[in-house]
Specification:
17 helices, 3 domains, 664 residues, alpha+beta, Deoxyuridine 5'-Triphosphate Nucleotidohydrolase, Chain A
Length: 664
């Protein structure tokens, strides 16, 4: 069957400001009154174009999940063209969390509390449009929803209440409210409790959730009435980040009577393509230099490397090219670098022996690496630096300092490793995270693939890809697919293909499959994704028992000793699918189950797919019996009963997902 090529995709965002912060504490005490300031970038100011009445305030999710409400006391005003202010009262509404006594000390100047979101009427969807999206699987809503004639959704919650696994210390609260990884800590500590009914006593609040998948739309919740349960001010659900079973809903009861099983109404809006000055979520994605018209080509960069690396004699570890090119000039062989270093000359035998791949661990190394030439660059030069190899420790330190001084803004390396070919170490992955934190763009002149890949983070994990795949990668709903490297027989291929087709029908064109990049089920999933016009990804591992495919559009590479570290890169997947596999796949099963138990990843539905032989008995069925025994003996979480499916029937999987995710 022929499939159309995927249409060009863009990153969809909520039209919003960045987080506003407390700029003045107007009243202290158990219910502080604050003034919040919001910076409006030109792109956002031009977007609203005098229609400020359609701006709303949405509190940060992590604040609401602590049972803290930020209630506007009036309308949004503008004290200057690029700055808005809003007065609000901060209140603790979940008595069981015990934050009321410390709330006054938590709310202080500089605290980020929420954003302004633009909700123009022309972007709101009608009931017909929402229903059409649901039928086309372009949006997935909770199973118990309704749409009225005006296009208003009614959303019921899960029968869950979220509690904390331990008492929150002051250090925890500060980290949750202000730390870069505060939401990760909150996810680990805030755990669900199954209840028959979600009850809210008068004057109390509750944190619960629903299931929802948004791709190109954002949802604005109505705070509601005192009789139905008043939703806290975290009222905007963003595209892409709103995907899964833990879409949090926070309610308070302002009435004098108990509320049982609250629900919330909402409106759906079309998101906008990412524009300068318009952010998208808690952590706006960095703008690639390509977006500023400064992109490079593989051919030019490879030719530049070839010209600079011409040298006599054997290639040694110390032959680590460094060359810095001016920002205004394209990188190609005809442009002279501002500074360069190729390889040392007149070195003693002792110095040559000391310089090896392990010399970066020796603080007494006698050699200074070529990145030392970056120190002489003018501050603010913002150069593009070409590196023969991915940086070692000493080069990394020089590059970080150069980045802080504004001397470097982009790194392009040619070889991942001197000893391990195209595979990076665990230390290298940490260095990539450092470059992301410093705002450095990283490119790989990948000679195996004949392309110039850019490194892009999604959450805490980064992948390499061609620039044209970046937007689609950022918005993809990812399913991780594991399995043996052994080739599939025709019957297995047909079954797996039917399963992947069913997932495509369920989740639409935003779907992506992430594998280990080997043959067998992994190769089939990669090929099938491309036949469906979907994005495919791989976490390649350096092994001796299997080759790696080169078809995946986004990828990361790991040395053989980084096997467990590699599993962290599967965290970007929403769901995990285990095909027939051996010892390696069994290890990945164990790591995944442990991550879910510890709260590292969300306890999402787990599918074990494939038959043991001609009798169609599920291959993994003995593991099901073992998991049941683990739960029965009190050595595993109870969700293993209803979150695990072992089957050889592809038709059972989509319905299983809908049941566990509670989707309509």
């Amino acid at each position: 069957m022929q499939h159309e090529q995927p249409r060009a995709t863009r990153r969809w965002v909520t039209p919003e400001t960045g987080d506003g912060t407390v700029i003045e504490l107007l009243s202290a005490g158990s219910e502080p009154v604050v003034r919040i300031g919001f910076d409006l970038k030109r792109g956002f100011r031009d977007l609203i174009a005098g229609r400020e009445e359609h701006l709303i305030f949405a509190a940060r999710s992590r604040i609401a999940r602590l049972g803290i409400d930020v209630i506007p006391n009036g309308s949004i005003t503008f004290d200057r063209d690029d700055h808005a202010v809003l007065e609000a009262t901060v209140r603790s509404v979940v008595r069981g969390y015990g934050l009321e006594p410390v709330l006054g000390s938590l709310v202080r100047v500089g605290l980020p509390v929420g954003r302004l979101v633009w909700c123009p009427p022309e972007s709101q969807l009608t009931s017909d449009e929402i229903h059409d999206l649901v039928k086309r699987h372009a949006i997935q809503l909770p199973s118990d929803y309704s749409i009225d004639a005006s296009g208003t959704l009614t959303i019921r919650t899960h029968r869950l209440k979220y509690e904390f696994s331990r008492h929150l210390r002051r250090k925890d609260l500060d980290q949750i409210l202000t730390g870069a990884d505060g939401k990760n800590l909150l996810n680990r500590l805030q755990v669900p409790k199954q209840v028959d009914d979600v009850e809210i006593e008068p004057g109390d609040g509750v944190i619960t959730s629903c299931s929802m998948f948004l791709h190109e739309h954002y949802v604005v919740l109505d705070r509601g009435s005192a009789t139905l349960g008043e939703h806290l001010q975290a009222i905007v659900l963003d595209p892409v980040s709103t995907r899964g079973t833990r879409v949090f809903l926070e309610f308070s009861n302002c009435s004098e009577r108990k509320i049982v099983n609250p629900y919330v109404t909402a409106k759906v809006y079309r998101a906008r393509a990412a524009l300068p000055g318009i952010t998208g979520g808690d952590a706006p994605q960095p703008t690639l230099l390509a977006d500023a018209g400064l992109d490079l080509t593989y051919e030019d960069v490879a030719a530049t490397f070839d010209a600079l690396e011409q040298q006599d004699g054997e290639e040694l570890y110390m032959h680590r090219l460094v060359a810095a090119f001016p920002r205004e000039a394209p990188v190609h062989a005809g442009v002279r670098p501002l500074a360069s270093w190729t390889h040392p000359v007149d070195m003693s035998a002792e110095q040559v022996a000391a310089i090896s791949p392990r010399s970066e661990h020796r603080t007494g190394s006698p050699h200074e690496y070529g990145t030392a030439v970056l120190r002489a660059l003018p501050e603010g030069a913002r150069t593009t630096v070409l590196l023969g190899y991915f940086p070692n420790l000493f080069e990394h330190l020089d590059l970080c300092q150069a980045a802080r001084r504004g001397q470097v803004e982009r790194l392009v390396f040619r070889r991942a490793s001197y000893e391990h070919g195209s595979f990076l170490s665990a230390n290298d992955q940490t260095r990539l995270a450092d470059y992301e934190a410093l705002g450095l763009e990283v490119r790989w002149c990948n000679d195996e693939r004949k392309h110039l890949a850019v490194h892009v983070f999604r959450g805490l994990r980064g992948f390499f890809m061609e620039p044209r795949a970046v937007d689609k990668f950022r918005r993809a709903l990812i399913i991780a697919i594991y399995g043996s490297a052994k080739a599939l027989d025709p019957v297995e291929e047909a079954r797996l293909g039917e399963l992947l087709d069913g997932l495509h029908r369920m989740f639409g064109d935003n779907l992506s499959f992430l594998t280990g990049g080997g043959p067998g089920a992994m190769q089939f999933a990669t090929d099938h994704a491309q036949r469906l016009g979907l994005l495919s990804g791989s976490n390649y591992i350096e092994t001796v028992d299997q080759g790696t495919n080169k078809q995946s559009e986004y990828y990361q590479v790991f040395q053989d000793i980084s096997r467990h570290n590699r599993q962290r890169w599967f965290e970007v997947a929403s769901f995990q699918l285990f095909c027939v596999g051996g010892v390696g796949t069994l290890e990945e099963v164990g790591l995944t189950l442990t991550d879910m138990k510890l709260g590292v990843i969300e306890p999402a539905p787990l599918v074990f797919f494939g038959a043991a032989g001609d009798d169609d008995e599920p291959y993994w069925d003995p593991l099901r019996r073992q998991l049941e025994r683990i739960v029965t003996c009190g050595r595993g979480p109870a969700w293993l009963y209803d979150h695990v499916l072992m089957t050889s029937d592809p038709a059972r999987v989509p319905s299983f997902y809908k049941k566990v995710l509670q989707l309509g």
